[in-house]
Amino acid sequence: MNRYPVWNIEAARAVIRAEGDTPDAVLPMLHALQAHFGYIHRDATALVAEAVNLSRAEIHGTISFYHDFRSTPPAARVIRLCRAEACQAVGCEALVTEAARLGVPVDGPAADDVAIESVYCLGNCALGPSALVDGALVGRLDAARLAVLVGGGAVAEVQMP
Ligand code: FES
C-alpha cells in the first residue's frame, strides 16, 4: 500500500499556501508537494504558477530541471541504491545485477510495489553498500538483504553513528 495520500487539489492548495506567495517559494512549494503526495501531479503546475504569479512554462521548466522531482506516483517501496565510488568499491554493482535478476532493474520502469533508483552517496560510505529505503538508511547491503527489501520485508538498519 502506498504511504502517500491520493492527489487532492484542496490539500495541494494548502501545501502551496503554507510556503508563501513569492517566486522564491517555488522550490519549497515543489518540495513540499512531493513530500506530501510523493510526486508532483501535473495539475500542480498551474496551482503553483497562480500562487506566485509566474507562467506555467516557468514552473514546468523548474520541475523538469531538477532530476529529483517525480511526475508520477512512486512505488510503495522505493530503494535508493548508492552507486558512488566508495559503494562501488564494496560491491554495489553486484547488487545492480542482483536487482535485475530479482526482476526489479535499477532505474527501470517503476512497478506499483517496488522500485530501485540510483543515487550517488548517502554519507554512509564506511558501511557500504548503502541504500535509503523508504527514508531509512541501510548499510552493509548484500544480495540476501536486498532480496528481503525487494520482497517488502525489513532488515536491520546499519549506519554510521
Ligand atoms: S559512496 Fe555510497 S554512501 Fe557514500
- Measured by DSSP, the beta-strand proportion falls in 5-15%
| Low-confidence residue ranges | none
The class by helix and strand makeup works out as alpha+beta
Enumerate how many helices there are, as a single number: 7
Order of helices and strands: HHHHEHHEEEH
Bound molecules: FE2/S2 (inorganic) cluster
Whole-number count of domains:
2
Tell the overall outline.
elongated
Write down how many β-strands occur, each being a DSSP E stretch of 2 or more residues: 4
Q: Please summarize the sheet with the most strands.
A: 4 strands, mixed
Rounded mean pLDDT is 92
Distance between the termini: 31 Å
CATH architecture tag of the largest domain = 3-Layer(aba) Sandwich
Quick one: CATH superfamily of the largest domain?
A: Glutaredoxin
CATH third-tier fold name of the largest domain: Glutaredoxin
Strand order of the largest sheet: 2-1-3-4
Helix content: 25-40%
Top-tier CATH class of the largest domain:
Alpha Beta
Q: Please tell me how large the radius of gyration is.
A: 18 Å
Protein model, in words:
The chain has 161 residues and is an alpha+beta fold. The chain folds into 2 domains: 9-65, no CATH class; 77-150, Glutaredoxin, CATH 3.40.30. It contains 7 helices and 4 strands, in the order ααααβααβββα. It has helices at residues 9-17, 26-37, 44-52, 56-65, 85-89, 92-101, 143-150; strands spanning 77-82, 114-119, 131-133, 136-138. Strands 2-1-3-4 form a 4-stranded mixed sheet, with helices on one face. Helix 1 (9-17) packs across helix 2 and helix 1 packs parallel to helix 3 (44-52). The longest helix is centred in the first third of the chain and has 12 residues, at 26-37. The chain starts with 8 loop residues before the first helix and ends in an 11-residue tail after the last helix. The model has no long low-confidence stretch (mean pLDDT 92).
